[in-house]
Amino acid sequence: MSIRLEKPFQALTPENIEPIQGQLGVYQLADAKGEVFYIGYAGGRSLFGLNGELKREMEEQSKGTQFRCEVNMQYISRYEELLMLHKYDFGELPERVLSEYPYKIGVLSPGN
Amino acid sequence: MDYQLTEEQQMLVDMVRRFVRTEICPLEDNLDPDAGEIAPEDSERLKEMTKKMGLYGLGIPPEFGGPDVDVTTQTLLSFEMAQHRAGLYNPCYNVFGGAGLAQLYEATDMQKEKYLFPVLRGEKSSFFGLTEPSGGSDPGRAIQTRAVQDGDDWILNGAKIFISGADHADFGILFARTSEDKTRNGVTCFLVDTDMPGFHVRRVVHTLRSTKYATEIQIENLRVPKENILGELNKGFAIANDRLSRYRIPYAAGCIGVAMKAQEMAIDYVKIRETFGGLLASRQAIQWMIVDNEIDIRTSRHVCLEAAGRADRGDDFRTEAAMAKLLGSEAGGRVVDRVMQIHGGYGMTKDLPLERWYREMRIRRIGEGPSEVQRLVMARNIIGGSFH
């Protein structure tokens, strides 16, 4: 089982968000080229879970933004795992994550 | 046996209780219910407070700069430090500091300089690498990680699982088999830097808890100098065993502390919640749950303090520590379960800490040796022999 989030990206549009339920989980946002620029989670304080978080993102992001998400009750450890994987793959965290995540990030070397 | 607190103990308990309720709990109101950390600036501010309280570095021996607090008092404080949402696995978000790996106090001077002192100064963090995919309950026999001597170095190969903190650590203690002896007598303890070539944290092992999550480690041709052997060659299991016994007391205390807080929540709730025209407190079914909680808390607390008292007196405390760990983790689970039942639907929500404690408390019956192994340890000590 891959530990990376490898589902295909979808356009961040109302029709694509609508079927997503209010569950806990993690998500990634990417630009039109598919380059991830944000990793977030819908946690215990998110109103309407992933559905609510993605709707909020849709209102704030530019056109062409894509997303993919994963329902996951262990959203904190999964979120941190995705951050570590991103750092392993790209050498640094996405800029917006850096401004939100003040903690020391762990080091994973998962191989490819 | 008298468990009346001394005046000084009562003062310390009151001080820590106040600290948890006025400094820690309010921060959690603004954190995710599963959060494992507070903001770094809050952490630094609270560490300054615990230093002023004279309680920073509990568990660090006085000769290494820790406060001179005995095991019994530390246990009483551990009951208090666990009484918040993240308290089971991250009591007070570590703002009281910690002893780090106790085995390092027995290290060589060079090892202390490189590993122990930076930990005590808060500059380095560590992990404890014992459990392997082949098993954790009988590590002396289950360890398959091999170390083969090559000149002045040892070459390690193998895997470890359920290792907390390895992804954030600067170094750790790794146990590996160094002889053909398949028992605990062929195991050696190595100090390993996480930036050494061949050390890999492969993945997060997702479990019922999010905070202080576990990881899986792979070790591939990891070259370790012989100076990094901790203790004696082929006698590493004694180091592991000593740690396992010592850690059972605060481990139990954390479970009991959470149970105490859950019981407090239950008592508050039954006095205000009405059903069928009467308070829950007036219902015998509820009263019995509250009483059963109290029995669970007091019995496990009593044994936990007995273990701590024996440790303070220098007596063998292995049986009592195992009993405390078993009782604390099992009683804690029962108490949290009953308190959820009393709270009904609210008990299941992330609005209250109960669902987090319920998930995390379940791990406690497995972590640091499952209940069955604690019984084995006690049987061995009570009857004698190792029953092969």
Explain this structure to me?
- The complex is a heterodimer of chains A (112) and B (388).
- Chain A has helices at 14-17, 49-60, 75-90, 95-100; strands spanning 10-11, 25-30, 36-42, 66-71.
- Chain A is α+β, with helices and mostly antiparallel strands and 112 residues long.
- The longest helix of chain A is centred in the last third of the chain and has 16 residues, at 75-90.
- The model of chain A has no long low-confidence stretch (mean pLDDT 93).
- Chain B starts with 6 loop residues before the first helix and ends in a 5-residue tail after the last helix.
- In chain B, strand 2 and strand 3 (153-164) form a beta hairpin.
- Chain B is α+β, with helices and mostly antiparallel strands.
- At the A-B interface, helix 3 of A face strand 6 of B.
What is this structure's SSE topology?
The complex is a heterodimer of chains A (112) and B (388).
Chain A: E1 10-11, H1 14-17, E2 25-30, E3 36-42, H2 49-60, E4 66-71, H3 75-90, H4 95-100
Antiparallel strand pairs in A: 1-4, 2-3, 2-4
Chain B: H1 7-28, H2 40-52, H3 71-81, H4 109-120, E1 126-129, H5 139-142, E2 146-150, E3 153-164, E4 171-177, E5 187-193, E6 199-205, E7 214-225, E8 229-230, H6 236-270, E9 274-275, E10 278-279, H7 284-313, H8 318-343, H9 345-348, H10 354-364, H11 371-383
Parallel strand pairs in B: 1-4
Antiparallel strand pairs in B: 2-3, 3-7, 4-5, 5-8, 6-7, 9-10
Helix pairs in contact in B: 1-3, 3-6, 3-7, 6-7, 6-8, 6-10, 7-8, 8-10, 8-11
Largest interface: A-B, 21 and 25 residues
What is the molecular shape of chain B? globular
Helix proportion of residues of chain A, in percent? 25-40%
**Which stretches of chain B are poorly predicted, pLDDT < 50 over at least 5 residues?**
none
Elements of chain B, N to C (H/E): HHHHEHEEEEEEEHEEHHHHH
Tell me how many strands of chain B there are. Answer: 10
SS class of chain B:
alpha+beta
What is the radius of gyration of chain B computed over CA atoms, rounded to a whole number of angstroms? 22 Å
Q: Within the largest sheet of chain A, what's the order of strands?
A: 1-4-2-3
Helix count of chain A?
4
SSE order of chain A, as H and E?
EHEEHEHH
Largest sheet of chain A: 4 strands, antiparallel
> Rough shape of chain A?
globular
